[in-house]
Amino acid sequence: MTTDPAAEDLREAADELAVAGQLPRFLLMYKFAIEELMTKLRILSEEFDFVHQHDPIEHITSRVKRPEAIKEKVRRRGLGGDWVSAAAALDDIAGIRVVCPFVSDVYEVARMLTAQDDVELLRTKDYITRPKANGYRSLHLIVRIPVFLSDRVEKVKVEVQLRTIAMDFWAAVEHKLSYKYRDSVPPDFAGELAAAARTAADLDSRMAALHERIR
């Protein structure tokens, strides 16, 4: 199996920090990576709006997984209980969600972001073209960007989720409903969720058509 040099560097950094008892500093790398990407996205949003009189980004949110959540995911996936394994194996320690007005904006923002020289695209999962069984739709990118620290440069992975306002509404409500029911989901629940997802997709199509008419 080919060794990924960037992942090895990150593993070594995590190992050093773990030994030194500085795990919060290790997570700072992910915070800094998010800040770098947020700046890139804000610049793209403002510049695109200036040129095309249309802002392709409605809003952006971000998060770094809590240490407890990372450890639990590592344990659940059988990857071991240390931070080195987490850094090397997990793609979603750092996450950014980009909400766009239209489906076309989702793909345009993804194209502009990944076209930048210092943004390395590792993986793409297109749940818009191929929605999940429950109706979930979104475009997921796993990217890696350099973070310039005081004594070194670390290449850090970030998961970027891009979706429309309608997709984001459906996903937010689905999460709340599924969490509420947990193990006691009504028999028709999945079917209703899938139907609601189709309605959201239809809304996206209608709004896109209206947008094209006034352009």
Commentary on this structure:
The protein is built from 7 helices and 5 strands; from the N terminus they run H-H-E-H-H-E-H-E-E-E-H-H. Helix 6 (165-181) runs antiparallel to helix 7. A 5-stranded mixed beta sheet has the order 1-2-5-4-3, with helices on both faces. By secondary structure, the protein is α+β, with helices and mostly antiparallel strands. Mean pLDDT is 86; it is low at 16-22. The protein has helices spanning 5-19, 23-52, 67-76, 83-89, 103-114, 165-181, 189-214, and strands spanning 59-64, 94-100, 120-126, 139-148, 153-164. The longest helix is centred in the first third of the chain and has 30 residues, at 23-52.
Annotation keywords:
five-stranded mixed beta sheet, 215 residues, 7 helices, 54% helix
Largest sheet: 5 strands, mixed
Query: How large is the radius of gyration?
Result: 19 Å
Categorize the overall geometry: flat
Helix content: 40-55%
Q: What fraction of residues sit in β-strands? A: 15-25%
The low-confidence runs, each spanning 5 or more residues with pLDDT under 50, are 16-22
Query: In total, how many beta strands?
Result: 5
Number of helices: 7
Secondary structural class: alpha+beta
Write out the strand line-up for the largest beta sheet, numbering strands in chain order: 1-2-5-4-3
**Average pLDDT taken over every residue:** 86
Q: What distance separates the N and C termini?
A: 51 Å
Give the SSE order as H and E letters.
HHEHHEHEEEHH
